[in-house]
Design brief:
11 strands, 330 residues, alpha/beta, binds adenosine monophosphate, 6-stranded mixed sheet
Length: 330
């Protein structure tokens, strides 16, 4: 499968990988399956193709994602002569584990709107459903090797970030890449879903708590402030609300929905936002955040910011509704 439009960037990335003997692969803080799976899949593919290269996947390990592969612990000096490949994150301050370290060159592969990470080779494709889709394209279109484990990781990253091929970033190309991945590797993909969707009864009950307590405004904003007490009461963690947020899609009365979760350690609120229409990443950017047009995150520091954030999102819903009505009238 050769994609003519992208063949140039595949070549450039492959050439850079070939050039270096030491490669470090990083991704964003608070990783999700797309971030972790793209990281371990690319590392394992480079190792398989070039056994003599030293390739590491760095960042804080997350025990529930250990299926995707164990991350590497390396000394800071290793960075000095390395190519640093950054996946699934556009801003330097959100790259996990590289703060203050010097590396030879940086190369980014990502599907978020571009921000401050700029290297001689930069592959930013906002129309891609996931970073795993980009890594799969790279492997399928260059001499980089694929095995069943690598293909399975990429498949799970794609399924997870596209929310099972349901979000609008899913394109015919997504299906083509997935089809090629499955044909080439013979992954038994239905067996893999446990790694993505297995959850505890506590988490299901916590989802019930959110459903019971979600406030919905007249303009179609669904929001909830989740205090730390509730996180403890339901035996879940700070990452759980963002794992659950996609389950609140397709609610007739809700256009945009957001969960603001108290983060006691960092003294503030971790925020997840999703949208069924209005663009939300511009609002997120106003509140220490960013992300995609319809799936973003932010951080809030106090009640005043919470109130103004809710107001901004509610206004975005109102404006979207108004412009949708006037479009119909035209
Ligand atoms: P989440 O709700 O945590 O799944 O995040 C949704 C999207 O927003 C992901 O693409 C994240 O990388 C991005 N994101 C989350 N939090 C932030 C933040 N504080 N700054 C920039 N992007 C973020």
């Amino acid at each position: 499968m050769v994609n003519v439009i992208n063949s140039n960037i595949y070549k450039k990335v492959y050439k850079k990988i070939k050039e270096y003997n030491q490669i470090i692969i990083a991704r964003h803080i608070g990783p999700d399956p797309d971030a972790i799976a793209s990281q371990t899949a690319l590392r394992d593919s480079i190792r398989l193709t070039f056994p003599s290269k030293q390739v590491y996947a760095v960042g804080l390990g997350v025990s529930k994602f250990k299926y995707y592969g164990i991350l590497d612990k390396i000394d800071n000096e290793v960075y000095n002569d390395s190519l640093l490949i950054v996946l699934d994150v556009p801003n330097l301050h959100r790259v996990d584990g590289i703060e203050g370290l010097k590396y030879k060159e940086i190369l980014k592969i990502d599907h978020h709107p571009a921000e401050d990470i700029k290297g001689p080779v930069d592959w930013t494709e906002e129309s891609s459903c996931s970073t795993c889709q980009l890594i799969a394209e790279l492997i399928l279109n260059t001499p980089l090797k694929l095995d069943t484990k690598i293909a399975g990781n990429l498949y799970l990253g794609i399924v997870s970030d596209s929310d099972r091929f349901l979000l609008s970033y899913t394109t015919p190309k997504t299906f083509k890449v997935v089809s090629d991945l499955l044909i080439k590797s013979k992954v038994d993909f239905t067996h893999l879903y446990n790694y993505l969707y297995d959850r505890s009864i506590d988490e299901v009950r916590f989802q019930g708590y959110i459903a019971e307590n979600l406030m919905v405004t007249e303009n179609g904003l669904g929001y909830i402030i989740i205090p730390n007490d509730k996180i403890k009461e339901y035996h879940v963690d700070l990452a759980t609300p963002s794992n659950l947020i996609n389950s609140f899609n397709f609610i007739r009365e809700v256009l945009v929905w957001t969960f603001m979760t108290e983060d006691v350690k960092n003294k503030g609120y971790k925020v997840s936002i999703r949208s069924h229409g209005p663009v939300i990443n511009e609002v997120a950017a106003k509140y220490n955040g960013g992300g995609h047009k319809y799936a973003s995150g932010a951080r809030l520091n106090n009640e005043e910011e919470i109130n103004s954030f809710i107001k901004d999102l509610d206004n975005a819903c109102e404006e979207y509704k108004r412009s949708s009505i006037s479009n119909i009238e035209i």
